[in-house]
Amino acid sequence: MTDATLNQTPRGNRLHIAIFGRRNAGKSSLINALTNQEIAIVSDIPGTTTDPVYKSMEILPIGPVVIIDTAGIDDTGELGRLRIEKALNVLKKTDLMLLVVDPAEGFGQFEEGMVEKARKSKVAPIIVINKTDQYPEFTIGPDVSRPDIPVVSVSAITREGIDELKIAMIHQAPKDFMSTVILGDLIGAGDTVVLVVPIDTAAPKGRIILPQVQAIRDILDHDAIACVVKENRLREALRNLKEKPRLVVTDSQVFKKVAAETPPDILLTSFSILLARQKGDLVTLVEGAKAIKHLSPGDKVLVSEACTHHRMEDDIGTVKIPRWLNEIVGGPLDYSWVSGLELPKDISHYKLIIHCGACMINRKEMLHRIMVAQHAGVPIVNYGVLIAYLTGILDRTLKPFPEVHKALETVEK
Asked: How far apart are CA 51 and CA 239, in angstroms?
């Protein structure tokens, strides 16, 4: 992978590796050793790292990753408590945890607590004994070491053991943490896929949005043919094709028009629904759609977007979806909007959560958000599934995915 390609890989498509440990255990030195760059501040003063520090890099054969440096898990005082809270929040988006042990402190209650938190969050841990240049004889006993948790000794200063640590990281990395396949498993070599890409006021100037780019790349990777058109040229494009396309993928906002112009014997879905399958749990999001028919005017609805962006005049999350949903419900709902990397701490009072396509967060974070909603008993649906439901074509847009038909039956009852 070239430097240009690596730099263009979005953070949401990278394995997230978080480094935890006590203050002054050498976490920042370790991240510098792993990246072979001086990107984290190293100091003998405990507590130098405050907010989590993110570094994008590549570890072969894992591929593009994000390494996250966190504050010490033994921090003190009110400010220290807040730092620890921020550090622990990183587990929500972590696929692999490196727990750094300082031989001067040993393996104690802080480390045991982090191992337990990793287990509860279903995060694969690796115990990293640091400072072997100072404590070459230090080991942890059999009561601490577990067969399923690798223990690797390193020196972040001399870089001894770093290669062995990278090998352990490769073995511990979840095999299915992030599939790069968006629609490749739905098509065959030589198939044609028509992508309907509106160019309106919401489209970024001079380019197309990330899910559309990723879909094109996935089509090419599977030796298929991509045909990209605006919605006003779809009918013409379908007429000019010698053979009917295997699949039509559209921006959800033009679902109604595209569905009307795409013959019923051609599979149809949206970029947002494809992302829901790739990054989240499509079955759960489809089941969340059934909450729509139980909404009443005045009910509280949370609209969550994973990224922040400049709002356009006819913005999908703040204008279009509320307008469409109010029409279905028969009156205005009580909407709240949140953007960025966190859901509100208390979501129990919402009747529905409407989430964006999640193109800018990783699969772990999206699954975490779905789990939080389920735990609170709040249905959650994403933009694509919601719009397909509102336009009455949810059944059609899910036909490419036979595994979700059973969930669809529960929605329609």
From this structure: 55
Q: pTM for this structure?
A: 0.68
**What kind of fold does domain 184-273 have according to CATH?**
Rossmann fold (3.40.50)
Provide the residue ranges of all domains of the chain, joining segments of one domain with +: 3-172, 184-273, 281-412
Question: Is the predicted pLDDT of residue 6 greater than 50, yes or no?
Answer: no
Question: Using an 8 Å Cβ cutoff, are 97 and 20 in contact?
Answer: yes
Question: pLDDT per residue over 267-297, tens digit each?
Answer: 999 999 999 888 878 889 999 998 999 999 9
In 3-state terms, what secondary structure has residue 135? coil
- What does the chain come to in residues? 413
DSSP per-residue string spanning 199-248: -STTSPTTS--HHHHHHHHHHHHTT-EEEEE-GGGHHHHHHH-SS--SEE
Per-position b or e across 301-333, b if 16+ CB within 10 A of its CB: bbbbbbeeeeeeeebbbeebbbeebeeebeeeb
Nearest to 145 by CA among 156, 132, 134, 129: 129
Output 161 or 41, whichever has higher pLDDT.
161
Q: What is the rounded distance in angstroms from the CA atom of residue 58 to the CA atom of residue 66? A: 8
Q: Give burial (CB, 10 Å; 0-12/13-18/19+) of 263.
A: exposed
Asked whether the beta carbons of 55 and 31 are under 8 A apart, the reply is: yes
How far apart are alpha carbons 70 and 192 in whole angstroms?
A: 46
Query: What dihedral angle (degrees, nearest 10) is formed by the CA atoms of 179, 185, 191, 194?
Result: -60
Instruction: Determine the topology of domain 281-412 in CATH.
Output: Rossmann fold (3.40.50)
CA–CA distance, 365 with 363 (Å, rounded to integer): 5
Q: How deeply is 338 buried, as exposed, middle or buried, from its count of CB atoms within 10 A (0-12, 13-18, 19+)?
A: middle
pLDDT tops 50 at residue 42: no
pLDDT tens for each residue of 221-233: 999 999 999 999 9
Architecture of domain 3-172: 3-Layer(aba) Sandwich (3.40)
| pLDDT score, position 292 | 94
| pLDDT, mean over the chain | 86
Q: How far, in Å, CA of 270 to CA of 252, rounded?
A: 6
Distance CA 98, CA 27 (A): 9
